Amino acid sequence: MRGSRFKAQDAPDLSPSSSGQAYSRQLLRLTLLPLSRFTLMQQIRFLVLSDTHDNAFPDPASLPAVDVVIHCGDLTMIGGLSNYRRALESLAACPAVVKLVIPGNHDVSLDAKWWEENLDSDDEQDEPVRARALFTSDDYTRRGVRLLDEGGHKVTLQDGRAFTVYASQYTPGFGGYAFGYDPDEDRFNGEKRIPEEIDIVMTHGPARLPSLASPEGTSGPAYRLDLGGEHGNSDGIKRHLGCSRLWEAIARVRPKMHCFGHIHEGYGVQRATFYTNTTMVAVTDVDAAEREGLPYISAAVGDGTTLLINASIMTHGEEDNNKPWLVDMAF
After folding, report:
1. CDD domains, alphabetically (predicted)?
2. Counting Cβ atoms within 10 Å, is residue 227 exposed (0-12), middle (13-18) or buried (19+)?
3. Domain limits, the chain
4. How many CA atoms lie within 13 A of 290 on its CB side?
5. What residues contact residue 288 under an 8 Å CB cut-off, 6+ apart?
6. How far apart are the C-alpha atoms of 312 and 49, rounded to whole Å?
């Protein structure tokens, strides 16, 4: 797994995570810690959003100050250097020191393989190179923007607070867009498996949970964060569109948060509670409060639970766009 070190003024240290490195997961077991050690837990505030598609990026001036912004992809509708630049200007202007971003399936020219296979006569052959150079330019790096490649990364803030994140821009192939993989491919548990001891998984697409009818399925309210597609279906029925292999990885790793977008209709937040020595998982709804005009979650800390967030901003038709999620989480 390839990581990177991010060295820039007013920017975080991003060094590669390792599946074999211990990240003091025992600190998360609050019920086992003496009261005197609670001070070891340090809170980080996140702003989570996705699928801003050119015109749906919220006004950065209206957003509260946070430690880290997470953008889960689809900054544009169909790529384009000028569109990337506008999205990056909005992202860089967000009041945070760190802005983590991955592409989505609509950010087509950031996928060099897709671009080569779908190049039209009027397309610039070198656009993928130029697009990546734009995202990683000194201008945006100095302003805290970090384009994450697929893999694990460690993010260390200037005051020493830190977390690990696994990023992936890939989704099951659909509609011929970028960063697609065969739905039968196990991208997250094989050679490129998500390592254990990862705090946050950020992907463009959602996971798909086992069927409620399965003996080893889920309990509690129905998982709905990958439900979508009614606008493209003749019957108008929503269907589960997430990746079951991704869910296998989430259930194995049990990160503190899994954030994503891609399925606009699935916007929302739920919590997965895992049980020891079983594949059973309870999915519960999360009642978000409101803080500074945004839906706010103070995430419970403890092993065995994962906060699941679909942060798609763009909606369909004349509906108002969704709002980013404000999340406080302790590490």
Report:
1. MPP_239FB
2. buried
3. 13-330
4. 2
5. 269, 295, 296, 297, 325
6. 6
Residue range 13-330 in CATH 3.60.21.10:
yes
Contacts of 14 (CB under 8 A, 6+ apart): 3, 4, 5, 6, 146, 153, 154, 155, 156
Which residue in 160, 161, 184 sits closest to 172, CA to CA? Answer: 184
Cα gap 167→323, rounded to integer Å: 22
The structure's pTM equals: 0.85
pLDDT (tens digit per residue) in 54-112: 999 999 999 999 999 999 999 999 999 999 999 999 999 999 999 999 999 999 999 99
Q: Which helix (H) or strand (E) holds 87?
A: helix 81-93
240 token code pair: 């589960």
CB 326 within 8 A of CB 44: no
Judged on CB neighbours under 10 Å (0-12, 13-18, 19+), 77 is: middle
SS3 81: helix
